[in-house]
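Entry, Tuesday afternoon. Goal for today is a structural model of the target with zinc ion bound, before we commit to ordering more compound. Inputs were pasted exactly as handed over by J.K., no edits. I checked the ligand SMILES twice against the vendor sheet because last time a stereocentre got dropped in transcription.
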Amino acid sequence: MKYRYLLVDRIPAKMQEGVVYHTEEYELAGLLCACGCGHRITLLVPDSHQVRDEGGYATIRPSVGVFDAPCKSHYVISAGNVQWLPAFTSAQAANIMHAQIARHVAADARPATWWKKAKAAVLSLLSKLRSLFAR
Ligand SMILES: [Zn+2]
């Protein structure tokens, strides 16, 4: 499977496998997990990830780490191709989340988008933390 890149107004409620949806207006990207588990992944673009169109295929940097689904998948997507990486340990996942919180605190210099991004970040982190403690 290769991930196509699709620029959209909104991330659709029902996503197709093999498509990376990117909305510049909401600064989000969405995709279904590459392992086939059906988990919806939402990325903050450009805060946490960069998403590029490479000839119709998606490139995502840095890697996508699934913390909030049982598969715990970890991979990078380059020109649509999935390269698998070792799964994060719980400690690594916690460190990454702490770094994300620190980045959002440091990003306060942009007042117009601050509130929107902070709210999205807090909601996303809460759902990740919930899944960590549920195990
Ligand atoms: Zn998965």
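DSSP finds two helices and eight strands in the chain.
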